[in-house]
Specification:
This protein is mainly alpha-helical and about 280 residues long. It is built from 12 helices and 4 strands, in the order E-E-H-H-H-E-E-H-H-H-H-H-H-H-H-H. The strands form 2 sheets. Strands 1-2 form a two-stranded antiparallel sheet. A two-stranded antiparallel sheet has the order 3-4. The radius of gyration is 20 Å and the shape is globular. The protein starts with 16 loop residues before the first strand and ends in a 9-residue tail after the last helix.
Length: about 280
């Protein structure tokens, strides 16, 4: 990764990372993983990859039996997942249950815009790198984007296209942005991946547009224009949020059936059945 600009104050090192089964980066401890983190990491990977689908019930007892642990670390891990918005509590008092947070139009838009702002800050830093480091970064960005373009035209498997898009964005975030931005990005970005993975087959049609927007990001960083780089990234994610909203409006939200019966916080009144299409 590019070195930090000379003359800048040193910041604390970013925590070491490991890749989960879905390819996402997550913070990893230097020593043995404690039981809470172990449960958290496994459930988080299952949710993000879609193996635990939106709306699926998460029974504490089932997790305890699966992991071979006591209830205490399992409850702590589930609480952490609730704080991140990956798990939700539904039902009335006395009949509360945990489910994988549904994928909705409003939530998807919010998540994409947050990721866009975080990556926009990273791009701003990237455009402020010394000239040589910036050139190396832009070279890598264009290599990945070209590979994405070629793979898209060749109709490569969705998993490969998804991985290349993820790699493009990680290239100007990891090792470039400050530790706080990176930490926040690692916490929220996987939530956008839930949407991208589930609706990927429909979103693939928009890849040529994404490739053009990626080039605009690389160009702004290459020129050393922080403001334009930030704007290019935020535009990319704003457009992605709009595309996602259109797709969800047509194909329906996922996992919201639990909310119809829950009647909590007005969710039942607000939830609408997903649209269905003839197949």
């Amino acid at each position: 990764m590019p070195a930090s600009p000379t003359g800048r104050a040193k910041t604390p090192p970013t925590p070491a990372v490991s890749r989960s089964a879905n390819g996402s980066k997550s913070a990893a401890s230097d020593g043995p993983v404690d039981n809470v983190t172990r449960v958290y990491n496994e459930l988080r990977a299952l949710i993000i990859s879609g193996q635990l689908p939106p709306g699926a019930r998460i029974a504490e007892r089932a997790v305890v039996d699966r992991m071979g642990l006591s209830r205490t670390p399992v409850r702590s891990a589930l609480h952490r997942l609730q704080q991140e918005g990956l798990v939700a509590s539904v039902g009335r008092a006395g009949d509360q249950r945990l489910i994988v947070t549904p994928l909705t139009r409003g939530d998807g838009r919010e998540v994409f815009l947050i990721v866009g702002h975080l990556e926009g800050l990273a791009a701003r830093e990237a455009a402020s790198l010394p000239t040589e480091a910036r050139k190396q970064l832009v070279r890598r960005l264009r290599e990945v984007n070209k590979e994405l373009s070629v793979a898209s035209k060749a109709k490569a498997p969705p998993a490969k296209l998804f991985a290349l898009d993820l790699q493009f964005h990680e290239t100007y975030v990891e090792g470039v942005a400050g530790p706080r931005v990176v930490a926040l990005h690692r916490a929220i970005k996987p939530q956008s991946e839930r949407y991208a993975r589930l609706y990927v087959n429909v979103l693939l049609a928009e890849l040529p547009t994404s490739v053009k927007e990626h080039e605009a990001i690389a160009t702004a960083i290459g020129k050393g224009d922080p403001r334009s780089a930030q704007h290019a990234v935020e535009t990319n994610w704003h457009n992605a949020a709009a595309r996602l909203s259109e797709v969800i409006a047509e194909h329906g939200e996922r996992g919201i059936w639990h909310l119809w019966d829950a009647g909590t916080d007005g969710a039942a009144a607000k939830a609408r059945p997903p649209k269905t299409r003839a197949r």
